[in-house]
Specification:
The complex is a heterodimer. Chain A contains 15 helices and no strands. Chain A is mainly alpha-helical. By secondary structure, chain B is an all-alpha fold. Chain B folds into two domains: about 50 residues; about 240 residues, MetI-like fold, CATH 1.10.3720. Chain B is built from 14 helices and no strands. Classes of the chains: A mainly alpha, B mainly alpha.
Chain lengths: ~280, ~300
């Protein structure tokens, strides 16, 4: 089996069969989740393995998931939190990455050392002291609590520094000749030339924070502040949570946004998350 | 200060003043990130280390410094011991299984051009999916009475298994979901490593008598994939160490702590019982394992010759 070699369909069949088998395992929960979200409870509890509903019950299930808990609010919170986190991460990381990549100054190696140190620390480690501080400041159950801890992304600084390093110095020299300040060089000259890094980072950041459970679970108490991950748990805790069809409908609704984004921009997603592997 | 940096670049100023302007600009540009780095990551992490030597509980008026007291308690705490053991089992099962299967899938996907993008997308799907939501889907799949998995097994004459409710099966189920979750990540990293291997090497190996696919894998693919593999092992191990979402959503460490893991034990002690000092000590153990893995990786990388 040599990579990239073209073979006849017949020769290719064993390969396709094996991959197809694995793909079935991967798709199993998606298929059943979606199928159950279209069925009434009586069909889910009946002893059968048919996927397609006899009685189409989607409107009732999705309606229940939307009305029993503020599901749209959860989705809105998730989008807002992801957007705020991304904006602050870029605002903080991009100028610092430029200074680390392109400017010569004392303290550069020291700061970069601290960034590398930061890369080693999982975000669960500062969570406990941060929680105590937020609790003391009366900031629990707020957007500030959900967003603030993630405004600094050491991975972002690291990624942008790598990207900026490969840009030619002449670009910066020319901009300085035109009298641009360093800050406008960062946003008007450097950034437009580093879009691949920016989109890779954006996809990584959005996926990570849309899907995060640990931190929202710690700081959020009310439905009004819940993110999608927490929303699923809240819904399950309600009485309606025993309704499997409605629960699956809720699960479909919170999973769909990322999957749709992924299918629209596959290459960027895979690139973003593969490079983010660095952060571990 | 920033203006002076710009001017220094525009006018033919002396080297020294140009350097000062550049340094000043650099400090200004790094200030927000630097402050946030200290306030939100390094500072709290240091505080965590300090707190792990105290007996502080949230709401308690005072705290006492008890030295290694928390760590001594950890060695005799049955819940922590189960959590540590389960976490290591989880890493020990999910990491090799994901990497073995992931390498196989990556080789198969790269082995031909048909449906390559489709398979890559399918295997990657769990990586972008909301894990808590998918965990509830698994909960339905694995439900002892209405779950399709048990119904399928019934067709084969196998009696129903209480996948998430019995202490014999709960870790098996969590590990299986772990492989499901991590496989796509490994596949994508290996695919990137495989495309970087020059095609000519396979032709050369064939000329040298490596006739079978197995020979070519042994002589070319595996050695050249070495650095990728090391990287994938470390990342996957750390991802597995952080297992939390599925445990919280499916079992909350139960039944009877049979599925307790490090981060979940830390979460319970800290945020349910508010024993901050003790929870901090568990977090320090977690961090120590992460750092140990990174250290081992760097050591191996340093010793190995890089393939270029």
């Amino acid at each position: 089996m040599r990579p990239g070699e073209e073979r006849s369909l017949l020769h290719d069949l064993p390969r396709l069969a094996l991959l197809g088998l694995g793909a079935c395992f991967i798709l199993l929960p998606y298929v059943w989740m979606f199928a159950a979200s279209l069925k009434p409870g009586s069909e889910i509890f009946r002893d059968s393995l048919t996927l397609w509903p006899e009685r189409f019950y989607a409107i009732e299930n999705y309606g229940k998931a939307l009305s029993e808990v503020p599901m749209l609010r959860f989705l809105f919170n998730g989008a807002l939190v992801c957007a705020l986190i991304l904006v602050f991460q870029m605002l903080f990381a991009v100028p610092a990455a430029y200074a680390l990549a392109k400017l010569r100054w004392r303290g550069r190696e020291f700061l970069f050392g601290l960034i590398m140190l930061g890369l080693l620390i999982p975000y669960h480690v500062p969570a406990l002291p941060l929680y105590v501080v937020f609790a003391r400041a009366g900031l629990l159950d707020s957007f500030a609590a959900l967003v603030l801890p993630f405004t600094i992304s050491v991975f972002g600084i690291f990624l942008f520094r790598q990207a900026f390093k490969s840009l030619p110095d002449e670009l910066i020299h020319a901009a300085r000749m035109d009298g641009m300040s360093e800050l406008s060089i960062v946003w008007r000259v450097i950034m437009p030339n580093a879009w691949p890094a920016a989109t890779a980072f954006a996809t990584f950041s959005i996926v990570a924070h849309w899907n995060d459970l640990f931190w929202p679970l710690i700081v959020v108490q009310s439905h009004a502040m819940a993110t999608p991950a927490l929303g699923v748990l809240f819904f399950r805790a309600e009485e309606a949570g025993n309704d499997v069809g409605a629960l699956m409908a809720a699960a479909v609704m919170v999973t769909a946004p990322m999957i749709i984004l992924f299918l629209l921009a596959q290459r960027r997603f895979i690139q973003g998350i593969a490079t983010a592997g660095l952060k571990g | 200060m920033r203006d002076s940096a710009a001017l220094a670049g525009a006018a033919p100023a002396t080297r020294a003043s140009r350097g000062i302007g550049e340094a000043a600009a650099a400090w200004v540009l790094c200030a927000p990130a630097g402050l946030a780095l200290f306030a939100l990551l390094l500072g709290p992490s240091a505080a965590l280390l300090v707190l792990s030597f105290s007996d502080w509980e949230l709401g308690a008026p005072e705290l006492a410094w008890i030295g290694l007291g928390n760590y001594v308690e950890l060695t005799t705490d049955p819940v922590f011991r189960i959590a540590l053991r389960n976490t290591l089992i989880y890493v020990g099962v999910v990491m090799p299984a994901s990497i073995g299967l992931g390498l196989g899938v990556a080789l198969l996907v790269e082995g031909g051009s048909r449906l390559r993008a489709t398979f890559r997308a399918i295997y990657f799907l769990p990586v972008v999916s909301l894990l808590v939501a998918m965990a509830t889907a698994w909960q339905y799949l694995l439900h002892p009475t209405i779950g399709p998995v048990n119904r399928l097994l019934a067709l084969l004459g196998i009696s129903p298994i209480n996948w998430l409710g019995s202490s014999d099966w709960v870790m098996v189920s969590l590990c299986m979901i772990g492989v499901w979750e991590n496989l796509g990540f490994v596949v994508v990293l290996f695919m990137a490593g495989l495309t970087a291997i020059p095609r000519e090497l396979y032709a050369a190996a064939e000329l040298d008598g490596a006739r079978s696919a197995m020979d070519r894998f042994r002589l070319v693919t595996w050695p050249l994939l070495g650095p990728t593999t090391l990287f994938v092992v470390t990342i996957t191990a750390i991802r597995c160490l952080r297992v939390f979402d599925t445990v919280q959503a499916l079992t909350r460490g139960g039944p009877n702590n049979a599925s307790q893991v490090l981060l979940h034990a830390m979460y319970q002690e800290g945020f349910s019982y508010f024993r901050i000092g003790y929870s901090a000590a568990i977090t320090v153990v977690f961090l120590a394992i992460v750092l140990l893995l990174m250290l081992v990786q760097t050591r191996i990388l340093d010793r190995r010759v890089h393939y270029s």
